[in-house]
Amino acid sequence: MTAPSSQVLKFLRQACFSTRHPPITFAAHQSRPCILNTSSLKIKPTLGRSLITTSFLQNSSGTNSPKTTDRGPPSDEDTQTDFNKMDIFSSTAQPATTIDACLPTGFHLNNGAKIDNGDGVLLIGGQAFAWRPWLATTSRSRNEMVNSRGAWQVTAQEAWGILDAVFPKPDLLVLGVGRYVLPVGKETKERLNGMGIRVDVQDTRNAAAEFNLLATERGVNSVVAALLPIGWDGAKR
At what angle do helices 157-165 and 186-193 cross, to 10 degrees? Predict the structure, then answer.
């Protein structure tokens, strides 16, 4: 098969492009300009710009705000959410040894008992005991409870002996070390862990709140608290 001659190719080109379409033109520049009806808008020139204030913005200025906060009688629909019913401890009475108030010199308990004179409190098995762990130190000083590394350190038998007599042992000891939180010394943690008790140390305010929640949820036999008054500042020796 031979290639077509140049004359045949020229004839085909002329036949294909003999009918020319007119070019497409856009007459947008010839159309009349769109005129915006601004009769319903208020235009106020400010600093070279136009500030458009519609009637919607005018109504949002507070002129149509309600005159009273009364929303009518409460609805009887049972589809509304009552958040008070979502509190699973609303019908559970708090233990008598939960903390009502933390004071610089002591504590107020839920049963009306007050511990003052700067004593701490030890809450075990629904019982409250005045706690003075600094008397178990060598110098019998409060500052002696903080070691040279800045950790809270009390390992004497006099401070934790009551935990040895408790059976069954609680799972957790919530330790509140005063106004600020301090780390627990290695020897103290080993002393308590050796009895099978985990330690959670916090400042006294947060420790009291944690004990109140856990004692209500898990019972007073599963969690104990050892709290120092918030007036003791172990971080400033």
Answer: 20
* Neighbour-count burial of 132, counting CB atoms closer than 10 A to its CB (0-12 exposed, 13-18 middle, 19+ buried): middle
First to last CA, the chain: 109
Q: Residue 227: which of 117, 127, 99, 112 has the closest Cα?
A: 99
pLDDT digits (tens, 9 = 90+) for 158-168: 888 888 888 88
Map tokens 């003075």 to a residue: 132
Structure tokens, 30: 């010839």
pLDDT in tens, 6-46: 776 776 777 665 555 555 554 544 545 545 455 554 545 54
Query: 53 pLDDT band (50/70/90 cuts)?
Result: very low
